[in-house]
Design a protein that fits this description.
Elements (H helix, E strand, L loop, with lengths): L1 H16 L3 H8 L6 H14 L4 H13 L1 H14 L4 H13 L3 H14 L3 H13 L3 H14 L4 H13 L3 H6 L1
Helix pairs in contact: 1-4, 3-4, 3-5, 4-5, 4-6, 5-6, 6-7, 7-8, 8-9, 9-10
Length: 174
């Protein structure tokens, strides 16, 4: 459980840093390299070492510009490793990145069933919040808080969800 959580936190941090896809392309690929090959390289890099934050971030970049190709390649990877909560989480992340929140929730919930951790619960809460389903968002952010009460961002997120839901008294209490 802790290993997946650490991997996810590393990848989330890399994504926030904003690594550059163009730099990656210049370093490993000729100009003629197509999105299909890029997606394959990135998935292979993650498969070899799922702690590689650059590969994880590149999946986010590719998700915006080559979603269909990336989705097909990742579905194939998921078929090879159907019980790997990491790949299920990554699939959810790609869906969320491309604003396919219901699909993201489905993947995240599957990952959460296999490996319940606070990071995945918080991602589910975020998707529900983006869908304006504050009741479910609050349920999952509470799970994240229950799993890691030391991470103050979850508490801040809970207050924000309560405010959006019109639960001002609860938000003030938190």
């Amino acid at each position: 459980v802790q290993g997946l959580k650490n991997n996810i936190l590393t990848f989330e941090a890399a994504h926030r840093v904003g690594m550059d896809l163009n730099g990656f392309l210049r370093s490993i690929a000729p100009r003629a390299l197509r999105a299909s090959n890029i997606a394959g390289y990135v998935i292979k890099a993650l498969n070899i070492d799922n702690r590689d934050p650059k590969a994880y971030h590149m999946i986010q970049e590719i998700a915006d510009s080559a979603y269909e190709i990336l989705d097909l390649k990742m579905q194939a990877q998921l078929k090879r490793k159907p019980n790997d909560s990491f790949w299920i989480y990554v699939m959810g992340n790609v869906q969320e990145q491309t604003k396919r929140y219901k699909k993201a929730i489905s993947f995240y919930e599957s990952a959460f069933e296999k490996d319940a951790n606070d990071v995945v619960a918080a991602r589910i809460a975020s998707c529900y919040e983006d869908l304006n389903d504050y009741k479910m968002a609050l349920e999952y952010i509470n799970r994240a808080v229950d799993l890691d009460s030391t991470y103050s961002n979850y508490q801040i997120e809970r207050v924000q969800i309560e405010e959006y839901a019109g639960m001002t008294d609860e938000a003030l209490h938190d």
